[in-house]
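hi! just following up on the protien thing from before. the input was this:
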Amino acid sequence: MALKARALYNFQSENKEEISIQENEELVIFSENSLDGWLQGKNSRGETGLFPASYVEILRSRAGSNYTDYSHSPAGSPGHDSSFYVAPTNPSISYQGSFEDDDDDDWDDWDDACTVVEEPRSAPGTNGHPSPTLQYPAAYSHQHAGYRPKLALERQDSMSSSKRGSVVGRNLNRFSCFVRSGVEAFILGDVPLMSKIAEVYYIEMGSKGPQWRANPHPFICSVEDPTKQTKFKGIKSYISYKLTPSNINSPVYRRYKHFDWLYNRLLHKFTVISVPHLPEKQATGRFEEDFIEKRKRRLILWMDHMTSHPVLSQYEGFQHFLCCRDEKQWKLGKRRAEKDEMVGASFLLTLQIPTEHQDLQDVEDRVDAFKAFSKKMDDSVLQLTNVASELVRKHVGGFRKEFQKLGNAFQAISHSFHMDPPYSSDALNNAISHTGKTYETVGEMFAEQPKNDLFLMLDTLSLYQGLLSNFPDIIHLQKGAFAKVKESQRMSDEGRMDQDEADGIRKRCRVVGFALQAEMNHFHERRVTDFKRMMQSYLKQQIIFYQRVSQQLEKTLRMYDNL
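and the predicted 3d structure came back as:
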């Protein structure tokens, strides 16, 4: 039987099964029996779906039983292990690295005894990061006995205190990227402090707000000479790329699956950074010249973004990938990267933020503005991608055919003029025939032109589609953190939480906020550089192209001067 209810808090839906509700909004509940902490009902706008049971109170007409409080149900209680809920494996979701047979089979040239990442595969979290089950294995010692994490010195907010206020409620949606990434645990002080943190990344205040401190040893890295190689006496083939970092000027050779291994380490570690996506994989035609050239171009852009990022460029695993040439040292470094403890939410412990005060509402407003900007940019990048792709198709097909038709028509005119020799003019006939051949040549020039301009534009747009696709989840982390600050402050004002605990939550929220703003700042800097370069290159190539077309037409025109 349907029941009336009232929303206690705001809830923003994250998928099509959920609906958003607003504080004090009247709701209709289809059944008061919750399923894993969720109720099904209808909001005041007529939308039907799920929302957290602890966010509502059911209104009853009988005295003394005016509502049912779900906020202390097992799924929402702090003592329940829902903070480490394991998302069921989704066969439709997998890490990048599952489509190209050549890149996923063996690792004999690296380490026979070790796979890429020896982890259970669950639904990926923020920016492709694994769920908290991979980041906090202590909560799963009965499930993954192979993990042996070091004992932590203390919890961030001194849980050993003899008296502690009410704990801020955990998100009931354990599939939320805020939960899966482990950032919720970090905000609530449940990420253990390590006895020693070897790596530190600094955020500074710049002219446009927080920014990552620049890499003190900047470098670039070239990607060259894709070469087909074989092993097992020619049974297996693969493409290797020559990488030459400028800081050591000594080349190393890496296969695509090695890039793929590094990419997954980056996703696993850097929760609040938009890691550039690798070029797409391809099941067939991996050794075709066009595909190899396309992958090389996109790996160059990917490498350029990696080396220009103040944090990613300093990552020990990335440096090891670029510099290590000794097989034994390579295996040791690879295992060290895979056993890195400062990953996911623990990565936030490595950040040193400025002491300057930032109003959290101002931060949220700035993030909201970036969210709107990134959505609009994503739409416009997709639009330009579609237009440019269609233009490539026309260059290769339609334009070439039309110019060929025009050229054939001109040559038909020339041939017809030969039909009556007494009145035939060989000079005119030859000029018209040459004009037809010229337009056939122009058609071929159009077909080849995308390799000089549109392909490079599409490479850049593809890179930014990947970067922009990361930001919704990263922004959601800050939104989730900000919601916890509001909730903790309300509980503190009501006397249900120690102010020190609320201050700790606010302090950790500042870390997330500063990191997101620094990443936003870096994105804008790269965007200006990349799109300036993209547009300049496109226009220059267009000018060169039409100059070549013009030269062909001018040469043909001169054949008519002395008739």
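The first strand starts at residue 3 and ends at 7.
The two ends are 96 Å apart (CA to CA).
cheers
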